[in-house]
Fold this protein.
Amino acid sequence: MQLKSLRIFREVARTGSFVAAAELLHTVQSNVTAHIKKLEEELDAKLIERHGAVRLTSAGQALIQYSESILSAHDEALSLFRKNASPRGRLRIGAMETTTALRLPPILAKFHKAHPEVDIELHTGPTADLIKGMMAGQHDCIFVAGKVNHPRLHQFRAFDEQLVLVSGRHMDKMPAPQELQTATFLAFRQGCSYRQRIELLLATHGVHATRIFDFGTLDAMLGCVAAGMGYAILPSMTVEAHRHRFEVHSYPLPEEIGQVTTYYAVPEMDTWTPAMTAFADVLRRATDAQVFT
Amino acid sequence: MQLKSLRIFREVARTGSFVAAAELLHTVQSNVTAHIKKLEEELDAKLIERHGAVRLTSAGQALIQYSESILSAHDEALSLFRKNASPRGRLRIGAMETTTALRLPPILAKFHKAHPEVDIELHTGPTADLIKGMMAGQHDCIFVAGKVNHPRLHQFRAFDEQLVLVSGRHMDKMPAPQELQTATFLAFRQGCSYRQRIELLLATHGVHATRIFDFGTLDAMLGCVAAGMGYAILPSMTVEAHRHRFEVHSYPLPEEIGQVTTYYAVPEMDTWTPAMTAFADVLRRATDAQVFT
DNA sequence: CCTGCTGATTCATTTGAAGTGATTTGAAAT
DNA sequence: ATTTCAAATCACTTCAAATGAATCAGCAGG
């Protein structure tokens, strides 16, 4: 059984004429006859009564229902891939906690408004997990800190973040090495790239190991920092956005380790769904000239 | 896009291998490659990532969902027509009021028990309407009184009915012609074949016209007969079955006009759905040797 | 770094099926 | 009986699917 045959069958049923169906489907009448005949042979049942008026038999009426559902699913699939059609389906975005909290909301809102037919799935996790998930085909696109060293993964600068040292107490300069040596640091769970910055910071101060606590969410982390549990390293914008909720103080990290770029990573363009294309479009507009250079 | 291609695509996605898919579908792997390539060209998107492990791209994952729904609908349609598979779908039976009330219930019960997957639609109406409906493709099969004179309509004796004259008063012989002349008759609405029998009965008694009231349901008719409104002509079995609910009396019609056979009429066998085949089977068994001679 | 192995691609060739147009058949209307 | 319209049939063309051999790419083991 072939889609072409079903399409012809449906048209004959609709128009009640072999000739009319042939014209509508841009073929000749003998071809219509052949397709119907083939269907009838395959199913071993007469589908159409052709004595005077062309009418569906009981078997034909049973088949037409399935034809409709098969053909409509087929048409829908085709329309999903048609360029310049409004995108539908699923879009699975992976992003870091901080990106999700601060940068994504306005972009997702804009995207959803422009393409309400797309179901957005937002998965949050540390950079390492995101990359692994992307390779396993669990995300369509991800936002990660720093460039990923992987062929067939295209990357674009999305956001530039200035990292700050966050504390419950006021700081007017970088704390002394011996202070950092004994202090506790709060970081996202294993795999977060900001965590590496902590190590880097300590190293520049000649300090080696220290205690690092794992946190799953931004709220928990900022709450504990405000309570004086220890230091954290976070993007400046993130801290600013939450300052009204937590009493925390921050001090900028030195230029060379305090600058972090969040990249938008996607597979090659020819593997994109229309939803991904549309999202990249919105993203480009939202981040202006930074991406897709 | 072709069903064959989708089937191959699905198999590749499932097995994660072109070779495995080729073997399972009894073809060669170059053919698998060709089909996937064709799909990719048609949709203008890379569906499968083939570097080391064969994996679906985002576009591929979007397509596979539609593939599943298309293919499962297709498989279901095929299984619907496969002989010796348990029938599914719809069965639209047309029958006269009296047949519906008396003869069909046990048969339908038996059929439903044997084939619970079939949705039975029972349409009730007078013989003439049933035949018209059958020609218009509204019924799959009908039970009618008397043989239908129509080519490409197969008919089998289903039930033999003995007609009786029904009255609210006791009768020990056929009422006199002058009684019949002035009496009122109750009958089903236009098109019922039993109605013709009334005319026939009157004619044999040399009586011409009389008043005939139309009724839609058996209950209303028997109720009015019991109340003394007039006479009715009905199958003996029908009257017997309702005797406990209505106080009516009956007297058998003479042999030559009192014998009515209910026929089971269906289109040619090659237009049947499997549900129709199964029903004919149950019907044959239920009515023993009477049908399908 | 080479080498062999596995698995996908490419290509030339065969095969078969789909499409075409002329013609015939069949049913209904005149 | 005749005309007409629509579907079936048939011979022929054309295009696409399937095949198998050869090639190429990635990967593991030496």
Remarks:
- Chain A has two domains: 3-81, 90-293.
